């Protein structure tokens, strides 16, 4: 009997199930002639006897987790992995099929009821490709247990979101991204070889949820390579945002200038209520809105009229949107999920803060899940003390320093991931986390995180819903971009902004753009130096803007190593000479001017609008019309006409939503 499941395990799949170091050690032992003698039972059980007397076994009908070994190691060991590799190299008495593992066992493909009682089609998924949705509930129960299905049904009744990624020629692994974990089906037709970053207590339930996600996609005919959908629940119901919108409209009418503490208090009280009802994305917007009012009251630099206006527009947009509940309002999935051993690759750091504290967001690529997580830390700053990014880079964190983590590889067995993709390490378990130098880890990131084709990345961004109604997840568009050439580097003294035009291997360009921050005074100098040194890769948040792609940089992989600008030492005293590396874009300038006047209206309050403000809104509408933005100009003109009437708040929201979305698509 040929074990097609073992033949289908690639080195990457084995590394996911164990770790890459053990796989390399096992391969080295096999190459050195220290592999096992193999025997196969009639039922397909595989045994390996090693020269030193060690015996490893791979039971039939089970995955690698059921393997045993007489050595002293706990969990998966090198002997078990070497046995797999040895079997793949020389299946005893068997010939390797031309397409090992391509077929789905008949028992896995049987039709069965989904959680709502609907039958599964006999041929789920697109032609020529297998789908985990083919597993019926009987198969799930046999492998994962009834308790897993019971737990999963509770989530199903509440409803959950999923991103389904079907296997392809370039990536044969079927994958489901759930709000707080990722599930990967490493071997077609086998439930014994499923990898998830969820901890053991949640593993079985999330595998069931992932199978149901594929099943739902199959039934709905969503056979694309990468699709997002909602599963279960009772559909879109009234969102319950009326009270919050009343508060938001009162802030819009009064403006941040005149808003009293009662409004901010009302917003703060609304946050836990919204989160408790699974409305996590509006809850985040309300919390940020309250923070903006507090920053304005404290006369702090973190307040920005444009940010205030965007948050007000976001609440209106989410209330109006008709998309999937999980995308627009939030998911009822568990707020946090403990992870099993997780390997993360640092992509740099962003430093911010207030007068009495500094914040550091460390961006960490989770290659196995194809996502980027954020490790957040806050450091108190004594009054009068200096606390730039360089100063906090030496602060202790996870047994090392912030600077080492921002430019290193992190392996942890005590991490927890939230639905917003924030990762934290459980207090008291720091010893179970290790940090090593980054090396060339960026080059091994999967497609989707490592961008080699800027034109293809533009198409990815074009396919996204508007930012105002997308899930509020951290580091959503953080990428590592391969640089073929740095063409220009320039500095805008007035805007205190550094722009650099970079090109990929095909000559498609993007703009690396960074603004001065008092929390990281040497960042622009460090960035300019790294970009001038013929760098290979740059990490950062990618967005549409100025008629192309704009990268907000977090780190640069230069010939001498990784440069994290926000943690660079120095006072930024060096002169940044040269013309700007980005040409002026008149369409962007017109949109920015219109956004600024909308933001000023929200800042001062519609009740306090002056004739001069109405004239500026009208002028901005005229400029938009001349630039060809006819629909946007019409909305802004209607807002100008509505100032001083009861319809002013709705007209402002109409104009702001369209303006923000139009600017995003530029």
List keywords for this structure.
666 residues, alpha+beta, 6 domains, eight-stranded mixed sheet, 20 helices, 27 strands, 22% strand, globular
Strand-helix topology:
Blueprint: H1 4-7, H2 11-17, H3 20-31, E1 37-40, E2 46-49, E3 55-58, E4 68-69, H4 78-89, H5 137-144, H6 146-158, E5 160-165, E6 174-178, E7 181-185, E8 194-196, H7 200-219, E9 226-231, H8 242-258, H9 261-276, H10 280-297, H11 305-320, H12 325-328, E10 336-338, E11 342-354, E12 357-366, E13 371-380, H13 389-392, E14 396-397, E15 400-401, H14 402-406, E16 408-412, E17 415-418, E18 422-425, E19 433-437, E20 450-451, H15 454-462, E21 478-482, E22 485-492, E23 497-503, E24 509-515, H16 523-531, E25 537-545, E26 548-558, E27 561-563, H17 586-604, H18 611-627, H19 630-642, H20 648-665
Helix pairs in contact: 2-3, 3-4, 5-6, 6-7, 8-9, 8-11, 8-17, 9-10, 10-11, 11-17, 11-20, 17-18, 17-20, 18-19, 19-20
What is the strand tally?
Answer: 27
User: Kindly, what is the distance between the CA atoms of the first and last residues, rounded to a whole number of angstroms?
Assistant: 59 Å
What strand order characterises the main sheet? 10-17-18-13-12-11-16-19
Strand content: 15-25%
Instruction: Assign the structural class, choosing from mainly alpha, mainly beta, alpha/beta, alpha+beta, or little secondary structure.
Output: alpha+beta
Question: Radius of gyration in whole Å, from Cα?
Answer: 27 Å
**Biggest sheet details:** 8 strands, mixed
What's the mean pLDDT score? 86
């Amino acid at each position: 009997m040929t074990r097609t499941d073992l033949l289908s395990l690639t080195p990457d799949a084995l590394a996911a199930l164990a770790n890459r170091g053990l796989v390399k050690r096992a391969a080295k032992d096999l190459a050195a002639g220290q592999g096992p003698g193999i025997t196969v039972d009639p039922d397909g059980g595989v045994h390996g006897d090693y020269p030193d007397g060690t015996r490893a076994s791979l039971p039939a009908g089970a995955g690698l987790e059921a393997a045993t070994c007489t050595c002293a190691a706990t969990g998966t060991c090198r002997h078990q992995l070497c046995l797999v590799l040895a079997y793949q190299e020389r299946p005893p008495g068997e010939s390797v099929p031309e397409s090992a593992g391509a077929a789905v066992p008949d028992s896995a493909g049987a039709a069965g009821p989904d959680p709502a009682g609907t039958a599964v089609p006999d041929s789920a998924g697109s032609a020529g490709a297998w789908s985990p949705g083919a597993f019926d509930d009987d198969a799930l129960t046999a492998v994962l247990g009834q308790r897993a299905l019971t737990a999963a049904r509770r989530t199903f009744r509440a409803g959950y979101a999923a991103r389904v990624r079907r296997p392809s020629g370039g990536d044969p692994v079927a994958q489901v991204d759930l709000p707080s974990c990722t599930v990967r089906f490493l071997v077609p037709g086998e439930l014994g070889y499923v990898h998830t970053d969820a901890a053991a207590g949640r593993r079985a339930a999330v595998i069931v949820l992932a199978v149901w996600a594929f099943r739902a996609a199959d039934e709905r005919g969503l056979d694309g390579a990468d699709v997002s959908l909602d599963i279960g629940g009772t559909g879109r119901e009234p969102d319950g945002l009326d009270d919050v919108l009343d508060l938001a409209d009162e802030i819009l009418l009064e403006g941040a200038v005149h808003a009293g503490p009662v409004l901010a208090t009302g917003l703060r009280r609304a946050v836990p209520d919204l989160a408790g009802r699974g409305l996590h994305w509006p809850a985040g917007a309300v919390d940020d809105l309250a923070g903006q009012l507090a920053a304005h009251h404290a006369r702090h630099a973190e307040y920005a009229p444009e940010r205030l206006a965007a948050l007000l527009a976001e609440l209106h947009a989410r209330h109006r949107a008709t998309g999937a509940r999980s995308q627009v309002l939030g998911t009822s999935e568990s707020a946090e999920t403990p992870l099993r051993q997780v390997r993360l690759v640092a992509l740099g750091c962003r430093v911010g803060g207030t007068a009495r504290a500094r914040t550091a967001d460390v961006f960490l690529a989770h290659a196995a899940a194809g996502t980027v997580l954020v490790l957040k830390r806050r450091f108190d700053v004594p009054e009068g003390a200096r606390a730039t990014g360089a100063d906090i880079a030496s602060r202790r964190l996870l047994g090392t320093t912030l600077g080492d983590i921002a430019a290193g590889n992190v392996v942890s067995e005590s991490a927890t991931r939230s639905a917003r993709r924030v990762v934290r390490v459980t207090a008291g378990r720091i010893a179970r986390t290790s940090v090593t130098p980054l090396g060339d880890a960026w080059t091994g990131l999967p497609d989707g995180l490592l961008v080699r084709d800027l034109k293809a990345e533009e198409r990815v961004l074009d396919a996204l819903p508007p930012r105002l109604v997308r899930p509020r997840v951290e580091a959503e568009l953080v990428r590592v971009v391969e640089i073929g050439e740095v063409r220009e580097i320039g500095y805008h003294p007035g805007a205190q902004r550094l722009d650099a035009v970079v090109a990929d291997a095909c000559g498609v360009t993007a703009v690396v753009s960074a603004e001065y921050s008092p929390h990281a005074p040497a960042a622009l100098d460090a960035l300019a130096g790294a970009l001038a040194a013929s760098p290979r890769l740059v990490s950062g948040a990618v967005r549409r803007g100025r008629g192309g792609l704009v990268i907000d940089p977090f780190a640069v992989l230069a010939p001498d190593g990784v440069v994290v600008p926000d943690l660079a030492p120095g006072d930024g005293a060096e002169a940044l000479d040269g013309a700007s590396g980005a040409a002026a874009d008149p369409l962007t300038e017109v949109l920015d001017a219109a956004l600024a006047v909308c933001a000023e209206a929200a800042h001062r309050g519609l009740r306090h609008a002056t004739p001069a403000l109405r004239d500026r809104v009208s002028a901005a509408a005229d400029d938009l019309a001349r630039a060809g933005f006819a629909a946007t100009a019409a909305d802004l003109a209607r807002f100008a006409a509505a100032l001083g009437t009861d319809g002013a708040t709705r007209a402002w929201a109409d104009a702001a939503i369209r303006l923000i979305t139009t600017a995003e698509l530029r």
